[in-house]
Amino acid sequence: MFILYPLVVALIVGLLVGGSVVPLGHIRFRWPAVALLSLGAQLLIFSSPAGELLGDVAPLVYVASTIATLLFVLANIPQPGFPLVAIGAASNLLAIVANGGFMPTTPDALAALGKHLGAGYSNSMTSANVVLAPLTDVFALPRGLPLANVFSVGDVLIGAGVFIFILAVMRRPFDRLPGMVVPAAGEPPQTGG
């Protein structure tokens, strides 16, 4: 849920510097179904009994959905900020794959939140044998913040990329955004195809 904070801050900053939210509704991404399926798969395995029912298959679904997310980002790499999002997503994917389909976190990060890993399938785990530890969820949002959770350097890069993307879209004219064409007078903006 770390990503919600850069998103909200970008919207506020964008409005404060004279941007508009209207262009955000006119951006057309390539492969949007891939992003939606990836998000749906992760919601299913982490927010329902499906993750526990899938057992040993759940980490494979997590890896596959993370790969799908990275493919979506790469398909949209011309968008402002997306190179940073791609680096962050790749960083997270490396850490997840290297650790058997889980994103390790530290007891200290969980303690900072006042949380512990519950029963059932979770994308997080603690272990004494973490691979690529600097890329894992070693940071924690301050306790008491809504949706506070642990996060990784990859999440920070993704958040920075999302911040740049939203700010750029809110501030640029339509003809200067990838995939956008200048609309005829009185027509809504259209994608370039």
Output the number of helix runs: 7
Main sheet attributes: strand count, strand direction, barrel closure: 2 strands, parallel
Helical content stands at 40-55%
Spatial arrangement of strands, main beta sheet: 1-2
DSSP strand count: 6
Provide the gyration radius in Å.
18 Å
The overall pLDDT, averaged over residues, is 87
Principal-axes shape call: globular
| Domain module tally | 1
How does this model look, in words?
- The protein is mostly helical and 193 residues long.
- It has one domain (4-170).
- Helix content is 49%, strand content 6%.
- The chain has helices at 4-16, 32-46, 50-54, 58-75, 82-98, 107-113, 153-171; strands spanning 103-104, 124-125, 139-140, 150-151, 180-181, 190-191.
- The strands form 3 sheets. It has a two-stranded parallel sheet with strand order 1-2. It has a two-stranded antiparallel ribbon with strand order 3-4.
- The longest helix is centred in the last third of the chain and has 19 residues, at 153-171.
- It is globular, with a radius of gyration of 18 Å.
- The two termini are 32 Å apart.
- The mean pLDDT is 87.
Task: Give a short summary of the structure.
By secondary structure, this protein is mainly alpha-helical. The protein contains 7 helices and 6 strands, in the order H-H-H-H-H-E-H-E-E-E-H-E-E. The radius of gyration is 18 Å and the shape is globular.
Task: Chart the SSEs and their pairings.
Layout: H1 4-16, H2 32-46, H3 50-54, H4 58-75, H5 82-98, E1 103-104, H6 107-113, E2 124-125, E3 139-140, E4 150-151, H7 153-171, E5 180-181, E6 190-191
Parallel strand pairs: 1-2
Antiparallel strand pairs: 3-4, 5-6
Helix pairs in contact: 1-7, 2-4, 4-5, 5-7
